[in-house]
Amino acid sequence: MAQNADTTELDERWRDGAELRWLYLDMNSYFASCAQQDEPAIRGKPVIVVPVMSDYTCAIAASYQAKALGVKTGTQVKEAREKIPGLIVREARPDRYVELHNKILEQIDHVIPVEKVCSIDEVVCRLMGPQCLEAPARALGHRIQRRILENVGECLTSSIGIAPSRLLAKTAADMKKPLGLTVLRQDQLPGALLDLDIDEFAGIGRSMKMRLNKVGVETVRELWDMSPSRMRQVWRGIMGENFWYALHGTDPPEIETHRASITHGHVLAQELRPVEHARGVARRLTAKCGSRLRRMGYKCGGLHIYLRGADGEKLEAATRFAVTSDSFRMLQACDELWAQCARKLKGPRVKQIVVTCLHLLEAGMKPDLFGWTPEGEEDGRHMNLLSALDGINQRFGKDKVTIGPPTKMHGFVGAKIAFNRIPEQPEFWE
């Protein structure tokens, strides 16, 4: 299998049988730990973090004290309160999580360069030269953990995995929490992996586990003994073969990806769910998409709207237009799509809205001739006005100036932290 030379061949001086190439750091109960760091009075106590203050939402993070009492991520707040009288509930603060995330990156960079930020609470670093030996690699990991605790916050513990492949390093980071450090050596594989369940590996979710079980694979030993071709059959593609190599300590080549869309979504508070109020939320999300496009240097050639009604029905509509970052043009498209969906909506209330900008193009690139017409050219007056609006809101605060009447919404609307995307600080002001 073809691989990158710089990641597969180690200098003979740095070989001890471990073949270590990656250090993976995973912050422990990150959102809850941030809350405890900011409020000394709640340290050492059961804490959960929620997206909105409601007994009917679910925890998006739980402190280790809460986990020890049976409350975890996904537990409904009402149920969590019943299990833990006196449970401390805090609303999510995405801007603070990004701020602390950046401080954590600074501390890691003092020890070893960050190769890739995997999520708000996970990063991976490439080991090189003598760092590939087990003793120096362990020392690096402990130095990183200490620097974060001493220079960012005593509640911000992390677990570290060190291994030959990124998959195994991530797996190792999950094996001992909190404040763990686990090394998986090439010359001892599968070793400690045999004590895991097969769905503890990234890439094996519920449906893949069922697929593996169907072909008689229920243990890590059985998973380990599969051939690359057999994994390719079960995964129904090259990802299965790639998983085999990663599981056995060799990184498959990375696939380069390009941004294809920008999405902002929001679960509506009760007072915003009537259709007439929900439309304002859709427009606000669209305006945020436009502001983000301009800041990132992109234009879009289409818009998609998804609605989920309060009774569970799902509606969506999409349209294409000449590429633009003109919020006025995008809002016009939003209104047209909203009208299409609203006509089909059976109930009078909307629970969730997702707006997606499609067919992205870098602002300096010429669009395809097909579908490009003079009428689609951006209005210079609009763009000058929007540039001024963006500058005012970045300087003086979000929604100081809006297109149309402001919508009363959660302060972090559209700037949520997704698994694989960390909002940039300017997003909290758009």
UniProtKB/TrEMBL annotation:
Residues 22-205 form the UmuC domain. It is an enzyme of class 2 (transferase). Pfam families: IMS, IMS_C. CDD domains: PolY. One of its GO terms (molecular function) is damaged DNA binding. It catalyses: DNA(n) + a 2'-deoxyribonucleoside 5'-triphosphate = DNA(n+1) + diphosphate. One of its GO terms (cellular component) is cytosol. PROSITE patterns: UMUC. Gene3D superfamilies: 3.30.70.270, 3.40.1170.60, 5' to 3' exonuclease, C-terminal subdomain. GO terms for biological process: DNA repair; error-prone translesion synthesis; SOS response. Poorly processive, error-prone DNA polymerase involved in untargeted mutagenesis. Copies undamaged DNA at stalled replication forks, which arise in vivo from mismatched or misaligned primer ends. These misaligned primers can be extended by PolIV. Exhibits no 3'-5' exonuclease (proofreading) activity. May be involved in translesional synthesis, in conjunction with the beta clamp from PolIII. This is DNA-directed DNA polymerase.
